[in-house]
């Protein structure tokens, strides 16, 4: 359940309204807060969102799940773009924020790392590195 | 669902006892105080919430803690940096002590030595 109701506290209603949103444009998004509001609403994964021209702030590690797209984003300043990536050592991923079926368009990431399934993490690394270079050149 | 996690501002400590603690918020307070690393804190019987990836930089001790739901394999809590130097997105902690704390939705990253040490800890049963 994500819709606010009259019996909810103001904080809870705010959280549910945030979870129900599908578009974010030209705003700062504190990813840990967005994730906690989704968890409070019973959804451990952020899905079905479009972020356009937003600043996505951590500290956070995003677990890239099916259908998450980065389009023209600046992933943050770092000397080596592989510093943005973390490889899970087990079959599960704990501590990261799962994002699926969501699109980030021209967003800037601050203090955000990325992880994902081991199978395609190396492949993803190439794309991230290319995007990071574009961001550094912007 | 009706339960909602809410967190009060935690303040500078340095000792936190018996509270619900949201790690991203503690870092936020730390940054507002002009520091980038959570340093020199003691946490006693706290429930420490993520989602977050904790990076013990140096001098951190875990005494009698539940490090999280490992599903029987501590490697499920661990993330290995793929880059050669710094780790982006984690929460660095230095010279901190955790006594009988519970960690929820917390992963761990750090040096190869730290990760190897963590792998030797028996995971809770599946």
Q: Kindly state the mean pLDDT of chain A as a whole number?
A: 85
The share of residues in helices of chain A is: 25-40%
Q: Helix and strand string of chain A, N-terminal first?
A: HEEHEEEEEEEEH
In terms of per-residue confidence, which ranges of chain B show pLDDT below 50 for 5 or more consecutive residues? none
* Silhouette of chain A: globular
Order of helices and strands of chain B: EEHEEEEEEEEH
Of all chain pairs, the largest interface belongs to:
A-B, 46 and 45 residues
Count of helical stretches of chain B: 2
Q: Gyration radius of chain A, to the nearest Å?
A: 15 Å
Structural class of chain B: alpha/beta
**Quick one: overall form of chain B?**
globular
Q: Topology, pairings included?
A:
The complex is a heterodimer of chains A (138) and B (126).
Chain A: H1 10-20, E1 23-25, E2 28-30, H2 31-40, E3 45-47, E4 50-52, E5 55-64, E6 69-71, E7 86-88, E8 97-100, E9 103-105, E10 108-115, H3 118-137
Helix pairs in contact in A: 1-2
Chain B: E1 15-17, E2 20-22, H1 23-32, E3 38-39, E4 42-44, E5 47-58, E6 61-63, E7 79-81, E8 91-94, E9 97-99, E10 102-108, H2 112-119
Parallel strand pairs in B: 1-4, 2-5, 3-8, 4-9, 5-8, 5-10, 6-9
């Amino acid at each position: 359940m994500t819709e606010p109701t009259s019996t909810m506290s103001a904080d809870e209603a705010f959280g549910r309204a945030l979870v129900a949103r599908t578009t974010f444009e030209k705003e700062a998004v504190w990813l840990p807060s967005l994730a906690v509001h989704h968890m409070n609403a019973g959804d451990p994964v952020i899905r079905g969102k479009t972020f356009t021209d937003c600043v996505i702030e951590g500290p956070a590690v995003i677990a890239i799940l099916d259908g998450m797209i980065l389009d023209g984003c600046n992933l943050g300043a770092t000397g080596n773009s592989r510093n943005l990536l973390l490889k899970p050592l087990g079959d599960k991923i704990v501590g990261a924020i799962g994002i699926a079926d969501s699109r980030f368009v021209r967003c800037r990431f601050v203090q955000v790392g990325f992880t994902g399934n081991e199978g395609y993490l190396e492949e993803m690394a190439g794309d991230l590195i290319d995007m990071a270079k574009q961001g550094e050149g912007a | 669902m009706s339960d909602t996690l809410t967190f009060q501002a935690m303040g500078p400590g340095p000792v936190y006892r018996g509270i619900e603690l949201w790690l991203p918020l503690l870092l936020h307070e730390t940054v507002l105080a002009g520091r980038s690393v959570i340093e020199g804190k003691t946490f006693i019987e706290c429930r420490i919430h993520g989602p977050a990836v904790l990076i013990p930089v140096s001098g951190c001790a875990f005494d009698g803690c539940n490090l999280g739901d490992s599903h029987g394999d501590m490697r499920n809590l661990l993330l290995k940096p793929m880059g050669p130097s710094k780790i982006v997105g984690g929460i660095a902690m230095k010279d901190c002590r955790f006594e009988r704390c519970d960690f929820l939705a917390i992963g761990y990253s750090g040096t190869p030595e730290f990760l190897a040490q963590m792998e030797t800890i028996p995971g809770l049963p599946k």
